[in-house]
Amino acid sequence: WRTMNQWVYDGFDITYKNLGIDFDKIYYESETYSVGRDKVLEGLEKGIFYKKADGSVWADLTDNGLDEKLLLRGDGTSVYMTQDIGTAKLRFDNYNIDKMVYVVGNEQ
Predict the structure, then answer these.
(1) What is the rounded CA–CA span in Å between residue 69 and residue 71?
(2) Residue 12: pLDDT band by 50, 70, 90 thresholds?
(3) Long-range pairs for 67-76 at CB < 8 Å and ≥24 separation?
(4) Is pLDDT above 90 for 31?
(5) Cα–Cα distance between 18 and 52 in angstroms, integer?
(6) What is the pTM (predicted TM-score) of this model?
(7) SS3 call for 108
(8) Residues 45-104: pLDDT tens digits?
(9) How many Å apart are CA 94 and CA 90, to the nearest integer?
(10) Is there a contact between 56 and 74 (Cβ–Cβ < 8 Å)?
């Protein structure tokens, strides 16, 4: 698994180098989902998020003109939003920032 993933990352590196793109920090899904999951569960405990009958965890963003968003599936597995929350948390931790604009499609 690690070898195959490394092939993919090596290919990304070649493509980015050819395009003249470099990154200060790369966040891998394997690290962001667990951080995001922990933050979602923390938000659930604090009443920020809510759980549906199937065990899935949701955020109600309708006050902001958005939909309700799935944060964790009923079986506890993550979705893109879970990983986005984890990535945002890591960026705040790593860069000591006060605010961040994080743009994703509404369908996520």
Answers:
(1) 6
(2) very high
(3) 67/106, 71/40, 71/43, 72/37, 72/40, 72/41, 76/37
(4) no
(5) 47
(6) 0.80
(7) coil
(8) 999 999 999 999 999 999 988 889 999 999 999 999 999 999 999 999 999 899 988 887
(9) 6
(10) yes
Closest CA to 72 of 55, 88, 47, 89: 55
CA-angle at 34, arms to 30 and 3, nearest 5°: 15
* Rounded distance between C-alpha atoms, residue 107 and residue 56, angstroms: 18
Helix (H, G, I), strand (E, B) or coil at 6: helix
Q: Could you tell me the pLDDT band of residue 107, with boundaries at 50, 70 and 90?
A: low
Which letter, b or e, does each residue of 65-80 get, where b requires 16 or more Cβ atoms within 10 Å of its Cβ?
Answer: eeeebbbbeeeeebbb
Q: How many residues does the chain have?
A: 108
Three-class SS of residue 92? Answer: helix
Residue 108 has pLDDT above 80, yes or no: no
For residues 53 and 88, is the Cβ–Cβ distance under 8 A?
Answer: no
Residue pair 68/61 in contact by the 8 Å Cβ criterion:
yes
